[in-house]
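protien #1 (seq + structre)
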Amino acid sequence: MATVEFFKQQAKNLLKDYNTKTFDEDEGIYVYAPRFFHDIDDIIMSFDIDEEEPFTLMKAQHVIARLAGFSKWTELIKATEPILEIGRLLLTNRESYQQRQGLFTNMVESLIVNDWKNYEELNLKNADDEIKLEVFRKVFLEQDLFRSNKTPIVTIDFTNDPNAQDMLSKIMKDKNLNSEKAILTSINQKNCIAILSTGWAGIALSLWGHDDPYAEREKIDNPKIGIKLSKDKARLLEIVMEKEKIALSIAVQYFMIFTLESLGYHI
């Protein structure tokens, strides 16, 4: 985990790079010989830094805080360890992220910070800091589990799992959906956060039907279901599979269990 000392050193490094400034009389511009921040020209432009004015350590700290996703330095030094680690990753991955996106702009101070803040606001308002760190690593840094450029098609086999068939059948009936759509609607951001934040999806899954153990389990006509996963849904499955150390078919059931809870079933 990153510490405040890491960011203090980054501010010192930025100041060192800035102080390599020399004026190119032929071009009429300042040029730099950076050792640490090779995108220093972009930083100066994005932060509208006046090269005619002194650039102090305090100003460098403010820039580092902003590139790490904080509004100001005082917010950074009060942050929790997971949020500091997100800040470190935002700072150190800004160039590679922008290259992967194929988008170069000085309209925002940092593209990865801008995208992360938007994602966080839309999807992670009630998530704790550890969950935010886990999601950030999976969604913004790691490659997709399903690497094809085309929409991946995966097969979920519930042939030998009567509980899974029973769960899926109930979702299909209550939502009037076929098996594929019943699964796909369950794989959503809300359920993903519930899985990660509660930590009891596995227990709930093992106890499915315990309130009426002798009831006959509902079956579905074709227990082998092919589903087309969007990149977003593939990422959600990826997050849960990695965090919980489970197979794809079990991860799907984790999502289904929280859909059933939302439909009023006892889990």
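ok now protien #2
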Amino acid sequence: MNVFVARQPIFDRSQSVYGYELLFREGLNRLVSGESGDRATSVVIANALFFIGMRGLTRGKRAFINFTRNLLLGEAATTFPSDQIAVEVLETVRPDGPIIEACRRLKAAGYLLALDDFAYQPEFAPLIDLADIIKVDFLATSVADRRQLVQELRNGRIRFLAEKVETKQDFEMAMDFGYSYVQGYFFSRPDIVTARDIPGYKLNYLHTLYEINRPEIDIDVLERVISHDLSLSYKLLRFINSAYFGLRHRIHSIRHALVLLGRDEIRKWASLVTLTGMGEEKPHELAVLATVRAKFCELVARRIGRGDQHTDMYLMGLFSLVDAFMDRPLEEILTELPIADEAKWALLGKPSSFADIYHLALAYEEADWQTFGALATRLGLPESAGPEIYRQAVHWANQIFS
């Protein structure tokens, strides 16, 4: 049985990750709705707990999971400790007596209750009294409704979560209206500035990226570039001596670390560290997302027999968010980076032999299972490989940022 599980970050007002909503599907030929909803949620609970591992999926943050009527009545949420999840009551659940009583029991046991895709109706008053979080869909509500819901239902206990927040302007609106949390990909959008506004340290990072990724670079040049950057040198030695590698003896020289890792692995690692350094004032999740994308693209390439392109695929995923790190147009930045043309073309939406792998990564990330299935078939990637590749990519990112 193949269970597809993706995640979407939920941020607090400081843009730190508060939790993740888990988005799932049982196989690409099944719908997670109607009668299959109970079964699919049961499967994702078991899958997260026993196969992927809750902490691996959520990095120790709270998991928001949708629960159908039958799962609420069956107290399926008690599969998890109360401090690990938020129970999302779907908007399709009718708040009758048995549901209200089930929610009261969950609340008494310490579970967090969230009302999903909320639109006020009088019959929901008993659920509102129990709710900890009310989720408001910013794509489906007017500006007036977004404000009015908070003004009318705020009681000092209920917190409001704006979901499907895709722009910086909507994020700022949510903050102005008093929302405590936001969910969406607003954080991965660039806030374009003019060249004269770019801080000098970002230009230095861009120069380092250029040097690291020149096709003709050799170990000697790599050693010189990294040795001249104190931060890179420190992070490289810390990385090579981490538990991830399990070396018996500590490595003390940049040269030794480069020889052990090899040119391609060093280029991937140094590009990641340099890119994340550019975004030190950005939400940490931006670096995590770029890392997961990069590893996902690399692992897909290896799986479908294109392992000779794994470094280019990795860099394609990593640099897919470079515009958000730099707050400059993507096309402008890519002209300054010596990465494979096919990677550049894919990122810019032009015809490219890399494009399907890039869009496959985006489809999984966004839980667009229909697009993912079509692209996987075209690439010759078995359905069962998707969840495992995603799990490995998330695990690898967790290791990098632990």
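Strands lie at 3-11, 17-26, 62-67, 85-89, 112-115, 133-137, 159-163, 181-183.
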